[in-house]
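Exam prep: given the inputs below (a chain plus 2-acetamido-2-deoxy-beta-D-glucopyranose), describe the expected output before reading on.
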Amino acid sequence: MEVALLSLLILSILHVGTGLSLNYYDKTCPNYEATVTAAVKQAMATDNTVPAALLRMHFHDCFVRGCDGSVLLDSTANNTAEKAGPPNVSLHAFYVIDNAKSAIEAQCPGVVSCADILALAAKDAVALVSHNWGPTWKVPVGRLDGRISRASETSLLPAPTSNFAQLQQRFNQLNLSVKDLVTLSGGHTLGFAHCSSFQNRIHSSNSANGLDPTLNPSFASSLRKACPANNTANNAGATLDATSTVFDNMYYKMLLGGMSIFSSDAALLTHPKTKGFITTFANSQQAFNLAFVKSMLRMSSLTGGQEVRLNCRKVR
Ligand code: HEM
Ligand SMILES: *[C@@H]1O[C@H](CO)[C@@H](O)[C@H](O)[C@H]1NC(C)=O
Ligand SMILES: *[C@@H]1O[C@H](CO)[C@@H](O)[C@H](O)[C@H]1NC(C)=O
Ligand SMILES: *[C@@H]1O[C@H](CO)[C@@H](O)[C@H](O)[C@H]1NC(C)=O
Ligand SMILES: *[C@@H]1O[C@H](CO)[C@@H](O)[C@H](O)[C@H]1NC(C)=O
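Solution:
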């Protein structure tokens, strides 16, 4: 409750100037929010990988051309879309957005953008796996959908091998701070990574034993067990923290103990300022919740589209 109230206060400061608002669909599609929530809940009932997938999908959307649903477009005969680009390996659960869109189209055709549906679904994903203490927030709406989606532009997404300077630079280009970087990386409290995404930390040619020296040794050996050299199992990998279906601050606790999955996570420890945020979040779920709401609102107000699609996979 307290968190919800505070996030409303934060929100009223933040959404000024983004063109988004809380009442955008009040007249044209009053049930939009509950309809998206119902679709997310229904999918989660049979697939517990859905929340992580939706949160990551929204991040990928916002970091390429703004939150304009470009990540949702399918490739066409003459265009290879973002979702077919290299970092897409774990993007999945697009069907949840399709289901939400169909339910919304049945109520108010051509009104609610796919970009808004994805932003709302990401909020639901977090709130629904947070129990009662986790973050939730009101998502300002009014995003438009874009008409362009290029696989080549997924190079704008940070790589798991990125160092601190690279991460900071990309976030900064989007007017996101190093606090946003640390906070949003907390999305790695949910979900799973394939071996290829952290291969560089456990089978490296740059160190005598092949290990990233910042990894906790027993954690490193468990990662190696899951991902042997020349691993051929496509589905092999590791969860991003020890409680990977719950939105909590475990990611930060593990990060401090040398138990993060990506080099990009470990890189957040290399600066005193960001290390301070990590310590704060590791010690306080409440501090993390509040910061997460704030940073999600900032990331999801990067807009960019031109139209409202009828089908999230195709331009109008
Ligand atoms: C800071 C730079 C970031 C990098 C380099 C990064 C990189 C990655 C990589 C490589 C994966 C695993 C892909 C795979 O192997 O299947 C992943 C998974 C994930 N990321 Fe990030 N990420 C970043 C930021 C974020 C942000 C900002 C969010 C959301 C707020 C996020 C949410 C997730 C989630 C939820 C998963 C798990 C997806 C699933 O299980 O389906 N990440 N990330
Ligand atoms: C794709 O190619 C077809 C046939 O060449 C063309 O008619 C269509 O305009 C192209 N679409 C786009 C989006 O470029
Ligand atoms: C991701 O990209 C690979 C090729 O890079 C492709 O085979 C795969 O189908 C893509 N996944 C999705 C969800 O489009
Ligand atoms: C970042 O802020 C600057 C200055 O206010 C603005 O010109 C620029 O468009 C912003 N960039 C993004 C991606 O919002
Ligand atoms: C993995 O493959 C490389 C090159 O294909 C080979 O040199 C190496 O010995 C292999 N390692 C293991 C543990 O099989």
